[in-house]
Structures are given as structure tokens and as C-alpha cells.
């Protein structure tokens, strides 16, 4: 039964959301907000229920690799299915997406112009993201991936600020370039993944059970798929879409993009590149460790000298997302768990950052830190939230960033050879550099004397802005205070992947 | 002197090349149309020639030629209609000046 | 003792932080102040009860056959990296943590009370109490940590609460930059600590699980300390740059302590941290947080003893810092900075004392642990008298509205309570009996002489300098020449309100009697009691040195006279260098701003914008360029197409023809 599977509803609800929005009048804000809030709340509720039920099922001893598995034939000649199924990691990713969609809805409460169209594209984007996380068929996964990427172009190009056309074009083209690599890699896996005499399949689990791809092909395909997803994960040197793209995107889009879309990259890297091509992962990890290691330090150093708030956070994202890929390439349970924690943490934290920047920009109409100062005096609520986001970013204990970074460092340090040691220690220095650029911004923007007299008349956060930020802060602190259940769930889900890696050495 | 195939083919080629030359060099659309007709007729002529000398028993070439002449007539009518319309719009039949749909 | 009380000790301050932090805006000042003070009072009472139970109940959990035991009151899993690397949050009760509980809650309670008067008119009063509660929570969590990772967690939290409190006056750019500096410098040090923990836990967690280490968590203090010898054997093969890995790990962890305790080259943040409110300086930057480094070494003492090289390192760092800070303190003008450098110097004293406390027999006599005991003793007494001095300085600043001693002078008549309590503090730090500093300093010096005469002599010299600069400060504030401003109407300084005087008197009383506590009965490195006896030669020498130094200070500063100026002019270079703190700040400024920020960061940002991004733009440009070029072929001229067509047909015909022949 198609609609009997809860996972399908994660795609159906956004589609209903699209339909609902389509029925609304162009400027009927009440109806548009009604649809958005209802659907995003439903999605949030579903995700929470899903996580609880997942944990309950695991606790009850359900050891299946994926839960709620189902598969429907979609296109027979190429054996493409709509195959769904989730493990602990995808469940958490769905939750993250729901939280950010929810917060993003409130953060773009007053979007202008064309609110209806904005939310239509916004919903389409979230459809793609949800679809990506529930799929276990590479082709449908790829399809949803593209569905998530394309709306970005219009969202930035139409509702953005600054050099929006340039940035939208750059972002889309670079990500499409990545997709081209990715498609090659996926096709390669499709053609080489099944043993002689079996029908070719796109299903990730089946391919991993066959484990049939020969070593030469693995190496080639690993590079294709890793680079393909790595572009979205802002891997050096394919990260330059990120500063421009984020800087020009409207608030909610930045939130969704940095918060969730960049996570598709990391998720794809381990779900496809590392899981299906374990031998190549063992063999070639060092190349990408160098690249991601550079990302981490390089992003942090670049962030130190930027003056545009969004650029600072975009470079900070390069550094933090570099950490995600870096940890995945360590190929052991602890570090990879840290990578997922970092995804969650970075998702929430960056979403909060971009939401706050949007709110500050909406009031002061500048994002240049040199032109602002002493905002704590003017808008204490936003100032405090900005500081909390900053502390989460620089890894303050009690916030999620600390948990994630520590798990990554302790996991990465398991490798005893000099190469890994050097890169891990280089990566740890980023926590100091992060502190430098976060405190620089906080010191200039939030604290200190008021820079511009005109800002004195500005108002503090409204209720919808408070709701949006409180949701995110609560999640950040929740992970920071009680990380163990998350960590355990993720560690358990990594078992098949780590086993595959161990078999392939 | 035997009147072999070459005696017919050479004038046909001359006619064709003249058509090509005219088509490439002339700027007036009517002249282009005339050149086009020249090329078409040389092709028709070839049909007839090959039918007559290579397959003397059959009639397909002849029939096809008649068919082509009929189509060429229709085509010319359309072409002239287009040219007339272009002339009405642009007051010119110069091919260079008709670039409204370029790129 | 049930587990409730230890949980309450941590939970009450955390709850107060959340309550005052979130609900503070809606509260009146009075309510916030009363809530904060009451809560901290309750925590202090519970801590006293816990410490009292630990030391005096005789429960076999706490003392077994005359030996004090370590006892984990609770220890719950917070995060499991792997089976062997499990982070717990717990409550470890042993002599030093019980002692620290008393110190922290006492000083914190005094500071809460004092701040009610001191901060009365400041905006953000509620926020201030919230931050104080956060700090108290973090510091308590730090000292009761059952494992190194819990300590690291609270170590960071302490750092951030220090950041928030230094930057409390957030509208002042100087306060903002001071708080930033404090956070970044300590965080830089913490990076080394983190690497040290990484190294240590890697080797410990990879020891065979069926070996003597068992499968316990690699972070646990008890496990690490009880198995120090086993750990040293486990990593014996592993070396890095000709040093054993364990030595490296312990030194790296100590660097974290250097940052928090402001040891030389990482001391630069502490003088600037004086931008914070004065009670905060008393609590954080004199009595509690800055001794975290000392506490860390004491906590890991068995491991440090296994690798004596690291103890030597600690001794050397401490000895240099102590002397440096004492010299600089002689030339500062800002009274809080004098006290800050004095703090650095005194903490370095404790470090040296720990560093010389080898756990090995020296010439057949087992002196071990004396330095440990003395260091902890001094930590205790120093916390009391240094908090007293800072709070006294706060009262002075409150009265005179300046940090500068040139604006003071002759204040003894106007502020008698402050004067007498400040004098007691100075006598205590100078090491004059019967005040508390004398006893602890005597034990420390005895330990140093026992190790090597050089350390003893060197640190005696520092003790002399200490007495000199403290009395220089005392005389310049309370004697010297009366500031004519005081005569003006409304400018007459007066003693502080009762909320501020009570803590002063209380701490002064403690400083008078704390020396008579038989400290060795309570806190020793191995839990066995140690009977303190005065080392007469050491005691006599140090008293003589202190008296000489005080005498010199009296001659120079008791009355206005030209002597100080003469001294200053006799060695202008030295004076200027000392006044500028030997240019450490300028060096750091150069390295961080000129080299790291301007050269590294800017060039990376430039590289990113122009080379990496330029490559991407160039790709787009090249594509565009070629498409514009071949666009010309789509000319729209039918004739051109025909020409291309015939040319193509001709080429094909030729090819066909060639192929056919």
C-alpha cells in the first residue's frame, strides 16, 4: 500500500503544501502563512514521531538495516524503483530538515515581493530534500537531489540581494557541474554493481550486499561520486559558490541551504561514495583528507578578515562542513558519528546565524560589520541570540558544536600514523581560529558603543522571530546537554558502513 | 558520333553550378529563387538522363521528374508569396536585410 | 552522605543562572540580588557540610586506616566516544576538591554579597548575578570533575563565564577587547590541553583491555592516577622528538593550565582582564579561576611524578614567571594591575612548589609531597587574602572613582575599615607571622630548599620583592601625600556600605587565623596526614627578607619624598621596560595583527577571491568567449549556410571518391 508507508508522507505533505499554496491568492498572506505553518508543523510532528518510533523499534530489538523499507517499480527498463527506507542517520536528518523548514517559515514571515511564489519554490526545495533523505534508490535519490537544487536558482535570483543573478548562476552552475560528475559515478555504480547474470539495480542496499564492483572501477567512481557530493559539501577548491550564494540568498533560503542542503553533500558522501565503494574509500581517503583539511583551516582563516556578516558565516560554513567530510574520511565509527553530529549541529547553528543576520539586516539595511556596533543596547534579544549562536559555533560545552567537534577529534586521533596526526592537529587549531572570528564579530557588532545614531530607533525581535530563534536554540542546547542518545543512535547506524569498510581492506 | 550520356550530363552540371553560383552571390531574393530553380531543374534533368540511358525499360525517373516539377511549382508559389510579404513589411527583397530572426 | 547534596551543589548555581539569565529582565534588582545571594549562601552551606563530612566524619568511604580516600559521589555517562573513551559527569570528593569547594563557595558568597553594594547602580545588575552564578557552577564542576574530559568541559565554561564577566561593561571598547583577549589566549592554551588529552587518552584507551588498566574509561582521574606506573610502561616505546609521549602529553596538558593560570608567555590576558568589575577580579582573576592550572597539576600529580621532566618544566616556567611578574608589579600605576601581577607571581609560586615536590626520596629522606601540601595550603590562604586585597581595592575605587594610585594617597584617615583590612592583606601576602601567608609560604620555601638551594634562594628573592611591591602599593594608597581633591565638598572618600565591609572584615579575619589550620592533616598528595613543623632557618630567613623589603618600602613611600623618582631615573631603561611589562603585549600584537591577521588571513582571503574564485570565473569566461566566437557561424544568411553546405558536400564527395578508387 503506497500511502501506508509513513515515509511517503514526507514527500506527500510538501506536495500538498505546494497544492495548497497554489490555491492561495497571490497576496493573501493569511492563507499563505496558514498553509505554511500548518504543513511545516505537521512535518515537524511527523519527524519527531518518526524519531521516537524509530528509537522504540530499535529498543524493541528490531535489528533490520533500514526501517519502513518499501519499494515500488517506477521505470522497468532501467529497473528504477521508488525505494524508501531509513536508518538512524536519515531519521535525524529528516528531523533536522523539519526543524529548519519550520524555523525558516517563521523567519520569512514578511517576505516580499511575490510571497506566494517564494513559498512555492521553498516548498519544492523541501520536497527534494525530504525525498533525498528517504530514498535508498540511487536514481530517485539523484532525482530528488536535483529537485532540491534547481529552485535555489530562482529563490536567489528573484528574492536575493546584491549581485543576485551572478551568484544564483554561479551556484547553480557549480552544483550542476558537481551533479554531472555524480551522474557519471552513479551510472558507473549501476553498471558495475551487480554480479554477472543478475539484473542491474539502483538499490543501495542491494549493491552493497553484492559488493561486486572491482577495484579499478571503484577508484574511478569514488572520485566521481565524492567530488560530485563534495561540491555541495563545500569541499576546497569547489567551495566558492558558497560565499556568494549565501551572501545573496534571502534569509530562509540561506537557512535551508546552509542548514540542510549542504548536508545532502555529506550524507551522499558516506551513503553512496563510502558505503558502496569501500575499497576505494580506504585507498583514496588521503587525497580528500588533504583537501578537506585545507577546507577547515582555510575557511576559518578566510572568515577572519571578512566584513560582510554573511560572508563570515559562509566561510565559517566552509570550515565546519569541511570538518564533516574530514571526519567521514577518517572511516571509523567514532569520527563518522562526529561527522553526523557536526551536520546536525552545523545545520541548526548556521540556520540560526542566517536567521539572525536576516533579522539584523532587515532592520539596519547593512551587513557590513564596520557600519554597525553596540546592537546589544538596541536589540538585546537578537544580540543575546547572536552570542549564543556564536558560542555554539566556537564549540562551547553545553552546545551541540562542542559535542560534535570533540567526537570528531577523538575519533580521528585513532589513526596513529603521522599523516593523520598532522591533519588532525591542524584541524584542531580551527577551534582557536573560530573563536577569533566569532569574537571579532561579536565584539564589533553586538558589543561596544553604538556606531550609527540612526540604529537607536530600531526595534527588537517580533514574536515570529522569537519563535524561529527559540526553536533553533532549544535544539542546539538540547543536543549539547544530552548528546548520548544521538551518539548511540548514529553509532549503531554506522555499523554496516564500517563493516563494509573493514571487509574491503 | 554517338550521342552518349556525357552530352546531356555536362550541360546539366553547368546548369547546376550556375545555380549554385547564383544562389551564393546574388542578394535579391527573386534571383535566388531563379538560381534555386536552375539547380532543381538540373537535378530533374539528371533523373531523366539516368533513366533513359541506364534503365531504358522503366519509367520511374520520368514520373519522378514530373512529380518534382509539380512540387517545384508549388514551392515557388510559396516562396514568392513569402517574398512578397517580406517586401510589404520591409520594402526590400535584399536577403541581407532580412535578419529579424537571427540568433 | 547521600548523592543529593553533591547534585545540589552543581544544580543550584546552574538553576540560578537560567532563572536570572532568562527571567532576570522581568525582575527587580533587589529580588535578583537577594535570589543570587541566598542561592549562593545555600550552596556554601551545603559545601561546608560536604567538606566537613568528608574531613571529620571518619566514614570508611572517606578515610580508611588513616588514609583519606577519593570517593566518586556519582558518575553518570554523558557521552560515549568508544567503549573505552566514555565521558562521565560526576562528583569526585577528595582532599583537594573538598578544600576547593570551601574556597570557591566562600569567596563566591563574599563576592555576591559585596557586589550588592558595589554594583548597586550599574545597569544589567540581574545579568551580572546570572553570570556570577554561571561562573560558580562552572568552577565547582571543574574542581569536582571525575575525569579529565569533564574538567575540560568545565574548563571551557569557566573560560566563557570569565569572558562574559570581563566584558560586563560591554559598551566600553577596552572591556570588549580585554574580554576577547582573555578568551582567545586561554582558548589557545586549551588547544594544547586538548591535544594533550587526545594523546593521553589514545594510548590509555589502546592498552590491552585484559591488562592492568582494565576496560575503564580512559579519562577517569582515579584510574589514571592509580595506574600511573602502568601507563608509563604502556607508552614506553612511543616517543616523539626524543621525548616520551607521556611527557609530551603531560606537558601539553600543563600548557592548558599555563593559559588559565597566566604563566609566562600566556600571561598577557590577566592584567587586561582587570577591565571587569572589581568583585569579578577578586572572584575569578585572583582567587578561583586562575588557580585552575595549579589545581590541574595537583589533580594529575601522580602522572606528573612518573615523568619528572614535566615537573622540571613546571618549575622553570613557574620560577621565571614569579620573578617577572614581581618585577613588573613594582612599576605599575593602576592598583588593580599591581594586584594582577601579584596574583601571577603568587600562582607561579604555587606552581614551583608543585614542581619541586618530586615523589622520590632525595638523599634518603622522603620529602615528597611537602611541596604539594604547601602549594595547596598557599592556594587556600592566597585565595582568601588576595580576594581581600581585591575587594579592598574595589572599595577604594568605589570611593575615589579611579584605578590610579596617583589619585589616591593619605586615605587611611578617610577609610579606616578598608585601611586596616588592606593592611592585613598586605601583611599576609608579605609573609609576616602570624598572618596566613607566612605559614603557607614557609612550607613552600622549605620544599624548594629541600629540592635544590637554587629554587629556594630564587623564590626567597621573589618573596622579598612581593613584600616590597605590596607595601609600596599600601603606602602609596594610604600614606604618601593626601590628594587635595578630598578637601573639596562632595569628594570626601568614605568607607563602603555594610554589604562591602562585611566581606572585607570576614576575609581579613580568615587571613589572620587561616595559618593555624593544621593543613597537613587534611590535604596531602597521598591522603596520609603530614605533620607541619616550622623550618626555623627558612622561617627566620624569610621573615628577615620580608621585614627588610617592608622597611625599604617604608623608607621610600611612607612620606612624599624624591627617592622613588631617583631610583626611577637611575635605571630608566629597566623601569620603562618593566612599566611596559617587558613589551609582551607589543610582541603579541605584532604577531597576531601584523603577521597572522594581515599577512596570513588577508592573503588567504585574497587567494580565495582571486585565484580559486578566479579560476571558476575564468571557466565561465572561457566558455562564454568560445560561444560568442562560434555564434558568428549562425549568421542567419541563407547564402552562407548554402556555401557551408556545398563546401561540406564537396568535401564528402572528395572523400567518397578517394575511398572508392
Task: Characterize the structure shown.
The complex is a heterotrimer of chains A (505), B (103) and C (661). Chain A is mainly α. Chain A has one domain. Chain A contains 20 helices and 2 strands. Chain A has a two-stranded antiparallel ribbon with strand order 1-2. In chain A, a hairpin with a 4-residue loop joins strand 1 and strand 2 (80-86). In chain A, helix 11 (278-305) packs antiparallel against helix 12 and helix 13 crosses helix 19. Chain A is globular and about 75 Å long. The two termini of chain A are 41 Å apart. With 103 residues, chain B is mostly helical. Chain B has a single domain (5-97), classed as Helix Hairpins (Orthogonal Bundle). Chain B has helices spanning 5-25, 29-54, 60-90. The model of chain B has no long low-confidence stretch (mean pLDDT 88). In chain C, strands 1-2 form a two-stranded antiparallel ribbon. In chain C, strand 5 (239-240) and strand 6 (243-244) form a beta hairpin. Residues 362-366 of chain C have low confidence and may be disordered. Chains A and C meet through helix 6, helix 11, helix 16, helix 17 and helix 19 of A and strand 3, helix 5, helix 6 and helix 25 of C.
What pair of chains forms the biggest interface?
A-C, 55 and 45 residues
Rounded to the nearest angstrom, the radius of gyration of chain A is: 22 Å
* Mean pLDDT metric of chain C: 85
Computed structural class of chain A: mainly alpha
Distance between the termini of chain A: 41 Å
N-to-C SSE string of chain A, H for helix and E for strand: HHEEHHHHHHHHHHHHHHHHHH
Largest sheet of chain C: 2 strands, antiparallel
